[in-house]
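#help-structures
NK: newbie question, is this the right format to request a structure? protein is 3-hydroxyacyl-CoA dehydrogenase
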Amino acid sequence: MAETKKVAIIGSGFVGRSWAMIFASKGYSVCIYDIAESQLTSALNDIGNQLKALEKSGMIRGNLKAEQQVGLIKATQSFEEAIRGAFYIQECVPEVQSIKADVFNRVAEIFDDDAIIASSTSYMVPSLFTKDMRKGRDRALVAHPVNPPYYAPLIEIVPAPWTAPSAVQKVRDLMREVGQAPVTLAKETMGFSLNRIQVAIIMECWRQVESGLLSLEDVDTVMWGGLGMRYAFLGPLEVAHLNAEGKYFIPSRNPALSVVGMKAYLRTYGEAMLKAADDLGPVPHESYKEGTPTANDICRQLEELVPLDQLQARRAWRDKRVAALAKLKKDLDQSD
């Protein structure tokens, strides 16, 4: 753990609260900043309730009790008070470039000479809001979590062109220490990694519904009942590596196919996969917009599936299951 144990969280919304809980689980002193006292009060109450519920269910992270973790989390309306003495600052403000730039510029005037600041942005490359920092921009980057961050461990680390490699490594080490699963992009890329993969999936799902190939409900079933079952434990490339292992590749039966793993997958399915890729169709520029017939139909089906007044309840349903999956994976890893 770093010599200075204070972490600052800028913004007390859902993501900020999740970060506070993650860092407190490992014994860090956390200071949350927001401009509204009511927002901070709500955040602290919510965090306390969440941690107590997690402790009761046996899903709290770390070795500290809920009461101890709650005691590590403070709140302030003073920007300077939050930043001073923090070795790591996590920005969690709205996805507006000017707001993020203002936060980073203000932090540059205050933060310690060895402190690092990271943004939680899900799509903005860091050079957009760090370019005008008066100092310390070599210690500024993106550390993008996945919702819900407390249960989904992935963190996408994205450096700006001027971010020091040492800062990237420190953040990567910190994320591992607090129980997250960091990946580091070699350069700034629109959409980072997760969203680029997600976009490819959503665009194909959109095309399948628009063309009438499958209903919306069936398309979603393909993911949660098929791909998602495997992808919860393995990535798509490792899935392919494992799937080509079988009786058809036993050398004694067919020497011509005496390869296994990804080589066998490429040999057996490569041409068919490329043909399917060629057949995917263009990006649906015209229909993937609010108000188009396809968009209206998809929105209608989704609102029938989950009425708008039930969205919050459905989110809670989702988070409960993601939490249970996280616990299952942890238990399985410990038993292996």
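mod (FA): yep, format's fine, and the tokens are attached above. Residues 311-335 form the longest helix (25 residues).
NK: thank you!
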